[in-house]
Design brief:
The structure holds two protein chains of two kinds.
Chain A (H helix, E strand, L loop, with lengths): L22 H6 L14 E7 L5 E7 L1 H5 L3 E6 L9 H10 L4 E2 L5 E7 L2 H8 L3 E6 L6 H5 L23 E9 L2 H6 L3 E9 L11 E6 L5 E5 L4 H12 L6 E5 L15 H11 L3 E4 L2 H7 L5 E10 L5 E11 L7 H8 L9 E8 L14 H18 L4 H8 L18 H10 L11 E10 L4 E9 L5 E5 L7 H13 L6 E5 L16 H28 L6 E4 L2 E4 L10 E2 H6 L1 H4 L3 E9 L5 E11 L6 E11 L6 H20 L30 E6 L21 H13 L5 E2 L3 H9 L1
Parallel strand pairs in A: 1-12, 8-27, 10-11, 14-15, 18-19, 25-26
Antiparallel strand pairs in A: 1-5, 2-4, 2-6, 3-5, 7-15, 8-13, 9-10, 9-12, 13-14, 16-24, 17-18, 17-23, 20-21, 21-22, 24-25
Chain B lengths: L3 E7 L2 E7 L5 H8 L18 E4 L2 E4 L12 E3 L12 H8 L9 H14 L5 H7 L11 H16 L1
Parallel strand pairs in B: 1-5
Antiparallel strand pairs in B: 1-2, 3-4, 3-5
Helix pairs in contact in B: 2-5
Classes of the chains: A alpha+beta, B alpha+beta.
Chain lengths: 745, 158
C-alpha cells in the first residue's frame, strides 16, 4: 500500500500525544495481566525441571505425586502429541522433555493440585532417573568436531559435511571482490568478539489459565505476543483442532520478543484435560530465566579495510551464534544486518549456528542484529581512531542511502540513515567537552522491520462512535496509535474510537506482535478498513441524496456533495449516517485483510558519554542521545518511549547482563539480584531526536520503531568505554571485573 | 497446614482473612482478597512490582508474611485513587506516558507516593535512587522520573 501522494499532509490526530485507552486501568491496578485471572474450581499447576545440563531420562515415576492428597493430575512428555513438523516437535519437547533433557531448567513433568503449596510439594515427589551426559554451553566449544552432540540429524542442507552435528545453520552472502578491496586499504583491522546471552527481562513472568474438555474444546487466557501463535502451538502439541481452541491475550507485562513462543500453555491444557478442571500456571522468576527465552550467545570475527581518508574498501564478518539446544536461524538476521548501514564495494558475511546446552533462544528485540552490529561498529570506530578520523564523518562517508546495494542483497529505497547521522553531528551532545576517564562513543543501528499477516475489522456504531477490532497484543501503546489512525482517516475525534484486541475466535489470523510490525501493519489495515467504511457511508448517502456514489466525497468526518453538479445537499456527519444505518441497508463496517509488505527498514544512531573508574572498572553513563527515523511518529511519546526503553536494554546488555554458566552447565544467576538489569539510579536522562523520513510503503509514512533502538547501544557504549579506558574492549558485558582486568592488563 | 485468622486494615477498610503461616502478604492480597494490583515479578524482593505500604513503610509484599499484618495498616495501589479522582501521580503518569506495558506501574506509583510523603521536593538523583528498587524494563525510566517530578511540583503548589 503506497504512501499517500498528497505532499505535506496536515494531520489532525496523528502526531499528537493523546491519552492511552488502557491508562486508567494500568495506574489503578485494575488491568488484568496473565496471572490476574482465576476461574471457579481452578487448580494450580507447577512444573518439575531438570537440574542437569544434559541427560538421558531413564525413567519417570509419578506415582507418589499422584497419591498426594489434593493432586488432580500429573503429566509428562508422553501426554503430549508428537508433531511431525520439526518446528512444532521442538515446541512440544521444550514444553515437556521426552527422551533427553537438553539444559538446566528443561521441563520434565507437571502437576495440577488444589493449592500452590500442594503442587510445589507434589513435584518433589516425582522421581526421575537421569543418565548424565557430557554437556557444552560455549558456542566455539560446541562447534568442535568432538563436542558432545545435543541433537542428532538437525543440520540444514546448507551446512557442509564433516562438521559437528551441533552446527545446524550456515549462511554466506555478499558482493564485490573482497581480496582486491583489502589490497586497496591503507589500514586493516581484524578483531574477534564474544557476547554473552541476555534475557528479555520482562517484569511479568509467563502466566496462563487453561481449560480443555474431553471433547477437544478449550480456552486459554495468557500473556503472549500472539494469541494465534499460541493457538497453533497448542493445537499441534495437544493434537486438537485450532477451531476448537479460543485463546485470549491478557494485558501483557512486557515481551520484547520473549513472549513469541509457548512454554506453559500446552502443559496447562494437558493438565486440564486430565483433571477436568481449569488449570493456572504462573512461572517463577527462576523458571523464567532458566527456561524461557534468552537471546543468542556469540563469537564473531570482523575484518575491515579503510583508506586513510576513511573510505571502507572491503569488509568481512564471520558470526558464530548459539541459540541454545535447538536449531535456530537468528544468525541469518545477524549476518544480514551486520553491514547494512554501509555502502560497500566488497563485502562478505558468513554465519553459523551451533546448538549448546542452553535454553531455546527466543527472539529479543531485533534478534541477531545488536551483536553483529556491535562487532562491526567497534571495528569501524577503532579504524577511525587509528587513522585520526572523526567517527561520525567516517559513517557519513560510507553510509548506505537510497540506491545503495545492501550487504544482504536488496537495494535500499528511501532510508533515513544520512539524515540521522547529520542530526547527530549537529547536536550539541557531539561537541560537548569530556573530562578525564571519559569517552564518547557512537554507533549506527539497523533493523529490517516486518509487515505480515493482519486482519482488522472496523465498526461504525449507531451512536456515531467507532470500534476497531484488531488481533495484536498491545505492549507499548499500539491501541492508542491504531485508534489515532482510524480517527484520522474517518475525520472523527480520537475519543470517539475504541480499539480492542480480539481473541482467536473473533477475528481472522494475525501474525504475532513482532518485527516492529503493529503500528505499521495494523495501522495500514485500519486505514484500509476505515476507507472501506467511508466508501459504504458515501454509498448510503448517495442513495439518500439520489445521486451517484462518485458524486459523494468524504471530508473531515462528513459526506459532502463532490461538486456543484451533485446538487445542494447539507453535509451528513458520520453520526447522522450511523443513526439511520438500519434504514439504508443495515450496519456499516469496514474490514481489511492483508499480508503487508513495504515495512521500510529503520536506522538509528546513538551517542553516548561514559566515565570509567580506573580503580573498580565500573562504568557510568553520563549522557545518552538517541536519533532515529520513525517515518511518521504516530504518537511521539510512545516513539520516544521505544527509543529510550530500547537504549536502556542495550545499556544493560553492554555493561551487566549475562547468562553465567558453571562448569557443571548450570545457570548460576537465575534471579534479578544476580542477573542485573539497569535500575533508575544507573542511568541519566535518555535524550531523543525523532526524524521523519516517510516510509514509501505506508499511507502515512509510518515505519516500525520498536526494535532498532536496542541495536546501537552495545557498540556506542563499547566505543565510549574503549576510548575512556584506553583499551579496546571486545567482550560483552563490560562488567566491572572484566573492564578492570583489561585496564590493568 | 492450619490457617490462621488475621485482622488488618487495607486501604482504610477493616479486613479479616485466613492464611497459612508461610503465606506472603502478596499471595494473601492476590489469591485470597482478589486485589491483583500488586504484581509478582520475582518473589525475592528484587523488582518492586509488589510494593505496598505497611504501617507507613514501603515494603515488598512478597517479603512480608500475611500474618505479620495483624493489626497493621496496609495501603495498596487499589487505594490510591479516591473514587473517580486519580492521585496526581497516577494522572501525571498517564499525561507523561510514563508507562508502557504497565506491569511495574502499580509498584512504582506506590513507591513514588512514599517518596513524596517523605521528601516533597526531591532531586532527580534522589528520585532515581529511591526508585532503584523498582524495575521497569520498558521505559528506560526517563519518563517515570520526569512524571514524578511534575507530580511533585503540582503537589507542592496544591
Amino acid at each position: 500500500m503506497a504512501f499517500d501522494a498528497q505532499a505535506e499532509r496536515k494531520f489532525k490526530v496523528v502526531g499528537t500525544r493523546v491519552a492511552r485507552p488502557d491508562g486508567i486501568d494500568k495506574v489503578t491496578g485494575k488491568a488484568a495481566y496473565g496471572a490476574d485471572i482465576s476461574a471457579p474450581g481452578m487448580l494450580h499447576g507447577r512444573i518439575l525441571r531438570s537440574p542437569h545440563a544434559h541427560a538421558r531420562i531413564s525413567s519417570i515415576d509419578v506415582s507418589a505425586a499422584e497419591q498426594l492428597a489434593g493432586v488432580k493430575a500429573v503429566v509428562t512428555g508422553a501426554d503430549l502429541a508428537q508433531p511431525e513438523d520439526d518446528f512444532f516437535a521442538d515446541v512440544a519437547i521444550n514444553c515437556l522433555a521426552r527422551d533427553k533433557v537438553l539444559y538446566d531448567g528443561h521441563a520434565v513433568a507437571a502437576v495440577a493440585a488444589t493449592s500452590k503449596a500442594i503442587a510445589k510439594q507434589a513435584i518433589r515427589l516425582i522421581k526421575v532417573d537421569y543418565e548424565i551426559l557430557p554437556h557444552v554451553t560455549d558456542v566455539d566449544a560446541a562447534m568442535k568436531p568432538d563436542a558432545p552432540v545435543i541433537q542428532e540429524g538437525r543440520a540444514l542442507e546448507t551446512v557442509p559435511a564433516g562438521m559437528s552435528q551441533n552446527v545446524t545453520t550456515h549462511c554466506q552472502f555478499g558482493h564485490g571482490d573482497i581480496e582486491a578491496g583489502f589490497a586497496k586499504a591503507d589500514k586493516i583491522i581484524e578483531r574477534s568478539f564474544k557476547t554473552a546471552a541476555t534475557h528479555q527481562g520482562y517484569i511479568e513472568p509467563q502466566a496462563c489459565m487453561a481449560s480443555l474438555g474431553s471433547d477437544g474444546r478449550g480456552e486459554v487466557w495468557c500473556c503472549t505476543q500472539g494469541q494465534y501463535m499460541v493457538r497453533a502451538n497448542c493445537a499441534a502439541v495437544l493434537g486438537v483442532e485450532e477451531s476448537q481452541l479460543r485463546i485470549t491475550a491478557s494485558e501483557i507485562g512486557g515481551g520484547f520478543g520473549g513472549k513469541t513462543s509457548t512454554f506453559i500453555e500446552p502443559v496447562a491444557l494437558a493438565l486440564s484435560r486430565k483433571s477436568g478442571k481449569p488449570v493456572k500456571i504462573v512461572m517463577t522468576r527462576d523458571e523464567v530465566l532458566k527456561a524461557t527465552g534468552p537471546t543468542i550467545s556469540t563469537s564473531m570475527d570482523i575484518k575491515i579495510g579503510m583508506t586513510k581518508d576513511g573510505r571502507i574498501t572491503a569488509a568481512r564478518g564471520e558470526l558464530r551464534y548459539s541459540g541454545g539446544a535447538y536449531p535456530n536461524e537468528t544468525v541469518d538476521m545477524g549476518a544480514q544486518a551486520a553491514f547494512a548501514a554501509y555502502d560497500l564495494e566488497a563485502v562478505e558475511t558468513v554465519g553459523w549456528n551451533a546448538m549448546t546446552n542452553r535454553p531455546k533462544e527466543i527472539p529479543y528485540r531485533a534478534p541477531g542484529a545488536p551483536t553483529a552490529i556491535y562487532a562491526v561498529e567497534s571495528v569501524v570506530d577503532e579504524l577511525s581512531q587509528e587513522l585520526g578520523l572523526d567517527p561520525l564523518d567516517v559513517r557519513l562517508m560510507n553510509a548506505a542511502r537510497k540506491g545503495t546495494l545492501s550487504s544482504y542483497g536488496p537495494t535500499f529505497n528511501e532510508i533515513g540513515l544520512v539524515a540521522t547521522l547529520e542530526a547527530a553531528k549537529a547536536h550539541p551532545h557531539y561537541v560537548a567537552p569530556l573530562g578525564p576517564n571519559q569517552g564518547r562513543g557512537l554507533s549506527c543501528g539497523f533493523w529490517f522491520n516486518f509487515g505480515g499477516n493482519t486482519c482488522v475489522s472496523l465498526n461504525i456504531n449507531d451512536d456515531g462512535t467507532v470500534g476497531v477490532v484488531e488481533g495484536n497484543p498491545d505492549i507499548g501503546g499500539s491501541r492508542a496509535s491504531i485508534s489515532m489512525m482510524a480517527a484520522e482517516e474517518l475525520g472523527v475525534p480520537y475519543d470517539k474510537v475504541r480499539t480492542v484486541i480480539a481473541d482467536t475466535s473473533s477475528l481472522g489470523f494475525n501474525d504475532i506482535t513482532d518485527g516492529s510490525r503493529v503500528t505499521f501493519a495494523v495501522g495500514l489495515a485500519t486505514i484500509e478498513a476505515a476507507r472501506a467504511a467511508i466508501k459504504e457511508m458515501c454509498r448510503r448517502v448517495a442513495k439518500i441524496w439520489d445521486i451517484d456514489e462518485e458524486a459523494v466525497l468524504w471530508e473531515d468526518g462528513y459526506a459532502k456533495p463532490a461538486g456543484p453538479n451533485a446538487g445542494e445537499h447539507p453535509p451528513m456527519s458520520l453520526a447522522e449516517i450511523a443513526a439511520i444505518a438500519g434504514n439504508t441497508g443495515g450496519p456499516i463496517a469496514g474490514h481489511h485483510e492483508v499480508n503487508a509488505d513495504g515495512a521500510g527498514v529503520s536506522f538509528g544512531v546513538h551517542l553516548c558519554d561514559t566515565e570509567v573508574d580506573p580503580e573498580t572498572g565500573a562504568t557510568k553513563i553520563l549522557r545518552y542521545t538517541v536519533f532515529q527515523d520513525a517515518g511518521k511518529a504516530v504518537h511521539p511519546d510512545y516513539v520516544e518511549g521505544q527509543m529510550q526503553g530500547g537504549a536502556v536494554q542495550g545499556i544493560g546488555w553492554a555493561l551487566n547482563e549475562e547468562y553465567i554458566y558453571g562448569e557443571d552447565g548450570r545457570l548460576q544467576n537465575a534471579g534479578f539480584l544476580d542477573y542485573r538489569v539497569p535500575v533508575a539510579s544507573d542511568l541519566p536522562d535518555i535524550e531523543t531526536v525523532i526524524l521523519e523520513i516517510p516510509n514509501p510503503g505506508h499511507p502515512y509514512g509510518v515505519r516500525g520503531v520498536g526494535e532498532t533502538p536496542i541495536v546501537p547501544p552495545l557498540a556506542a557504549i563499547a566505543n565510549a568505554v574503549s576510548r575512556a579506558a584506553g583499551v579496546r574492549m571486545t567482550e560483552l558485558p563490560m562488567s566491572p571485573p572484566r573492564l578492570l582486568k583489561a585496564m590493568t592488563g | 497446614m492450619k490457617t490462621i485468622p488475621v485482622e488488618t486494615t487495607i486501604n482504610g477498610d477493616s479486613t479479616e482473612f485466613l492464611c497459612h503461616a508461610d503465606e506472603s502478604l502478596l499471595d494473601v492480597l492476590r489469591d485470597r482478597l482478589g486485589m491483583t494490583g500488586a504484581k509478582e515479578g520475582c518473589g525475592t524482593g528484587d523488582c518492586g512490582a509488589c510494593s505496598v505500604m505497611l504501617n507507613g513503610r514501603l515494603v515488598c509484599s512478597c517479603l512480608v508474611l500475611g500474618v505479620e499484618t495483624q493489626g497493621a495498616e496496609v495501603e495498596t495501589i487499589e487505594g490510591m485513587a479516591k473514587g473517580e479522582e486519580l492521585h496526581p501521580l497516577q494522572r501525571v503518569f498517564l499525561e507523561e506516558a510514563a508507562l508502557q506495558c504497565g506491569v511495574c506501574t502499580p509498584g512504582i506509583l506506590v513507591a513514588a507516593k512514599a517518596l513524596l510523603e517523605k521528601n516533597p521536593d526531591p532531586t532527580d538523583t534522589e528520585v532515581r535512587y529511591w526508585l532503584a528498587g523498582n524495575l521497569c524494563r520498558c521505559t528506560g525510566y526517563d519518563k517515570i522520573i520526569k512524571a514524578v517530578q511534575i507530580a511533585a511540583a503540582e503537589m507542592r503548589s496544591a
